[in-house]
Amino acid sequence: MPDAANPNVRFIFDCADLPGVHYATTYDPEGPFLAFTTRLKISGVARLPFAYDSAREIDAPLRGRSRRLFLSGANSRGLYPVRYALRRRRRWSPLLRYLVHDLEHPGYPEQGKPPRHDITHDRFVALVARFTHFFLCGTRFNVE
Q1: Which of 23, 41, 78, 130 keeps 20 to 30 A from 99, CA to CA?
Q2: 73-111 burial string, b = 16+ CB within 10 Å, else e?
Q3: How far apart are CA 47 and CA 25, in angstroms?
Q4: Domain contains 1
Q5: Where are the alpha helices (H) located in 81-131, listed in sequence order?
Q6: Of 33, 22, 19, 49, whose CA–CA distance to 143 is shortest?
Q7: Residue 103 in contact with residue 127, Cβ under 8 Å?
Q8: Which helix (H) or strand (E) holds 33?
Q9: Cα separation of 107 and 41, whole Å?
Q10: Residues 65 and 24 placed together within one structural domain of the fold
């Protein structure tokens, strides 16, 4: 079993071979995770590569794009500490306010809450395509 101090990761691995537990990954298993998957007796592992549709590419030259950093997503100190810290610093820094374009999370209308904005799906992709840089925060639950 892979060695992990994070309790969320430990929980994922501790559920191995329990009834109905299977694993999905976007990557080919390697290293400790590969060793873990080969020892599974009941749980299965499915590799689900990222879906990429080249027909949806937007041909926009870099010259016409904003050189600012595009920041978007939920703001949670516990789930996304790096994104949260950048937003906090942006709030107090005139330079960062100029350099970072921040689009707040649209909310959760499917949970009965009013949407904060309607820039989602194709409109979101079109907006992001107007920038040269996009901030990705892969720190959710300290797993990624």
Answers
A1: 78
A2: beeeeeebeebbebbeebeeeeebeeebbbeeebeeeee
A3: 5
A4: no
A5: 81-92, 94-99, 122-128
A6: 33
A7: yes
A8: helix 31-38
A9: 41
A10: no
Q: How far, in Å, CA of 127 to CA of 144, rounded?
A: 26
Q: Is residue 122 part of a domain?
A: yes
Could you list the residue range(s) of the whole structural domain that residue 117 is in?
A: 57-142
* Number of domains present in the structure of the chain: 2
pLDDT at residue 136 in the model? 81
pTM: predicted TM-score of the whole model, two decimal places: 0.63
- Inter-residue contact 87 to 102 (CB < 8 Å): yes
pLDDT one-digit tens code per residue, 6-37 = 888 889 899 999 999 999 988 888 888 899 99
Query: Which residue from 101, 17, 103, 113 is spatially nearest to 67, judged by alpha carbons?
Result: 101
Task: Note the pLDDT tens digit of each residue in 77-121.
Answer: 888 888 999 999 999 999 999 999 999 998 888 888 898 999 988
C-alpha to C-alpha distance for 44 and 41, rounded to whole angstroms: 8
